[in-house]
Request: fold
Amino acid sequence: MNQPGFKPGRWEEIDDQKDQLIPSLKTLAGDGRAQATAVYDRGGPGVDRRKNPHKANAAAGLLTIWNNNGSLLFNNPAVRLGYPGFPHSEELIINWAVEKIDGLKQNIDGGIINLLIYSYTDVCPDCERDLPSVWLDKLRAASERKGGAVINLDVWDEKGGSFNHVIK
Ligand SMILES: [Zn+2]
Reply:
């Protein structure tokens, strides 16, 4: 994934997120949904018919973790689909990030954690309420289990053809 100005610190909205990272995450989310849709439409024994990707939201997250020396410990994206009646895709990305933070071998005391999420459909009111409170607290708790770090959580969607910074 192309990341201009890649250095420890919070992503800059205009230069990094809006122009580079968010379009890349949008492509990843769209591809993930297209793949799931193709598998679903093909059918077969492994397909859960309760989870219809045609009706699912897709979110892509980019989790980047530096330690307090500025060393990059983790920098990977993930895509999750949120099906009607199941946890929303944004929550699934948070859970993925928590799992990755818990899995770190290193202490990250004084480090930086950036989680950038792009939601293919509009972020719903429940997620808009929970992301900066319940889910951010969950990330903070995971960080504290590893020594503690500054956490930057940014969430974007798209409204009227332009990218919209929902949570910053
Ligand atoms: Zn939601």
Remarks:
- Residues 13-41+50-167 form a domain with the Cytidine Deaminase; domain 2 fold (CATH 3.40.140).
- The chain has a mean pLDDT of 92.
- The helical segments are 13-42, 89-102, 125-145.
